[in-house]
């Protein structure tokens, strides 16, 4: 239920213009709820990207973009015979969606999904450039980028404006589905 409420809050929140945004201090650990709140200007060990820097990396194909917006699950109380229309996710074209990996704490299954997704996205290279994002004013991407650093990835970038900043620039978005671990 906690995650369902976090997802709903994320979809309803409106990002503040950059000039009015308050910045939070960088915490010592992962950040929990509320996930849509002012974020820090820094992430120790990572490069923080503005819109133009993120776009330049995207244009050159020099980095893998990792979207960590939570996936809205089918409501548990929805009758089995009721149609469930999953909310679509439009994201930065070419991005890999690793939903639910930006929470404060991850289960063993979620952490395995995250590490396997990153291994696939990076082609097993710890020095691959990875750009983590979600929505503007979203701690999910900060948490996921920090987690990637702790795993040992050395070229971690954090794009705090996420798809909100991307769309505000008029850049394209593409429909995406969550990454699925398809073992051979």
How would you summarize the topology of this molecule?
Elements: H1 2-12, E1 47-48, H2 51-60, E2 64-67, E3 89-91, E4 96-97, H3 108-121, E5 129-133, H4 139-151, E6 155-158, H5 162-168, E7 174-176
Parallel strand pairs: 1-6, 2-4, 2-5, 5-6
Antiparallel strand pairs: 3-7
Task: Provide a brief overview of the structure.
With 184 residues, the chain is an alpha/beta fold. The protein is 30% helix and 12% strand. The protein has helices spanning 2-12, 51-60, 108-121, 139-151, 162-168; strands at residues 47-48, 64-67, 89-91, 96-97, 129-133, 155-158, 174-176.
How would you describe the overall organization of this protein?
With 184 residues, the chain is α/β, with parallel strands linked by helices. The chain has a single domain, classed as Oxidized Rhodanese, domain 1 (3-Layer(aba) Sandwich), CATH 3.40.250. 30% of the residues lie in helices and 12% in strands. It is built from 5 helices and 7 strands. The strands form 2 sheets. A 5-stranded parallel beta sheet has the order 1-6-5-2-4, covered by helices on one side. A two-stranded antiparallel ribbon has the order 3-7. Helix 4 links the parallel strand 5 and strand 6. The relative contact order is 0.23. The N terminus is likely disordered.
